[in-house]
Amino acid sequence: MSKSIILIGPPGAGKSTIGKQLARSLNCSFTDTDDIIEAQTGFTISQIFIDQGEPWFRELEVEVVLKAIAEIDGVLSLGGGAPLSQPVQDLLQGISTPIVFLDVSLATAAPRVGFNRDRPLLLNNPRAAWQTLMEKRRPIYESVATHIVAVDGLSPKEVAGKIREIVGGTT
Question: Residue 55 and residue 37: Cα distance in Å, rounded?
Fold first, then answer.
């Protein structure tokens, strides 16, 4: 029987890095919905925000996320804003796949994110923007997550180990 895990959290939580580590340790595949969007469109997420705008991106993101969840086989990392859409929330709340919210503080996220131009929602006053994003997103992340793992002070390998312990293991 295959075990799948969904990772959610804000920019800088380590969803991609931890997801890859977790997939390696479980000997399964890793998929990032942002990578799917970039592959489908041929553009980076930040370029999509600039050229098409956030509403267009979010609409595409919902389609990609719903399909990825339906086909999940391994570790799936959702873009930071993906759980904000009601269709995604409804689907996440109705599935048995473990959903792990990687909880991170601003102090830990800041150096990881670098608050650079590749994070379109964090361009103006990045620290304040990240904090505002988290105030809005935290209740949603917590409501759809089946597990919460604090990542501050832990290596990706340590976080992956915690997730394996929490969700019971191996594929």
Answer: 14
Residue 81, token pair as written in the block: 């804003």
CA distance 95 to 89: 10
Q: What is the pLDDT of residues 132-162, one digit of tens each?
A: 888 899 999 999 999 999 999 999 999 999 9
Whole-model pTM: value is 0.89
Distance CA 11, CA 80 (A): 6
Residue 101, token pair as written in the block: 């919210």
Contact 152, 94 (CB under 8 A): no
Distance from C-alpha of 73 to C-alpha of 159, rounded to nearest angstrom:
20
**Tokens (6 digits) for 122:** 């964090």
Distance, in Å, from the CA atom of 154 to the CA atom of 170, rounded to the nearest integer, reads: 21
Which domains, ranges and CATH numbers included, belong to the chain?
A: 5-167 (3.40.50.300)
